[in-house]
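Weekly structure sync - notes
Attendees: PM, LS, DV (DV joined late)
Agenda: review two folding runs queued last week.

Item 1: First target. Sequence and structure tokens pasted below for the record.
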Amino acid sequence: MNLKTELGNVSVSNEVIATIAGASATECFGLVGMQSRKQVRDGISDLLGRENLGKGVEITEEDGQLYIELFIVVSFGTKIHQVAQNVIDTVKYSVQKLTGLEVRHVKVNVQGVKVDNS
């Protein structure tokens, strides 16, 4: 994704945007982790670590606007719709603030619920 500024052009890769989105999502209460879409298709349900935050995020750019799709796992006992809405708001704000790019839509796919066994 390219930005034109008064000082020149800035190119921001989809991987950078995905990492920003994943990192900001994991700060939300009730979110246990991110899950790769490929793992979801393969039936593997391992949560991604902090070094792989962008793997649970898909970025699409259309007409200079971003569409972000996240694949998350939430904690048992939390209100799923509230966690999802918080993730949407947080990701949209963070990506727009840190990149200057317009986020048109954020979609959250809840892939599972993790029960704490402690």
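Item 2: Second target, run right after the first with the same settings.
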Amino acid sequence: MMNQLELLKQKTKIEVYWKQWIMQLQQDYPKHEIIDQIKGDPSEAYTAIGVTLTKNNLKLEVLIEHDTDTIYYGIRKIECSETLLLKISDFIKSLGFINKTALWFGFKDTSYENGYNDLKAFIDKVIKFTEL
């Protein structure tokens, strides 16, 4: 169990990364809608940042999110046609992402140190996918 000092260090680390990543997303993807779902304290459970992309007039949310113990990135589910659902599922599976859940088409764990680079590389792949 973490003591108070360790908890404070973890909270500060998360806040620093999250703020940097939001600014970096705005610079790297100025033509895309930025998702900033930080409600209050970024170290609280289930904060998410990322970009919204469009395929066949439907939105895809490509995010990095953390809960209390883990950080992961992927494509969060949205309403879409069965055909698009299959295409997204096949695409994400081909990249080795964990099977879809109730909220995600697929996701992968990462670390704070690698998180933004992993997310950016994935966003770039999803952009190419949306252009097909």
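Discussion on item 2: Helices lie at 4-28, 82-94, 115-130.
Action: LS to circulate a short write-up before next sync.
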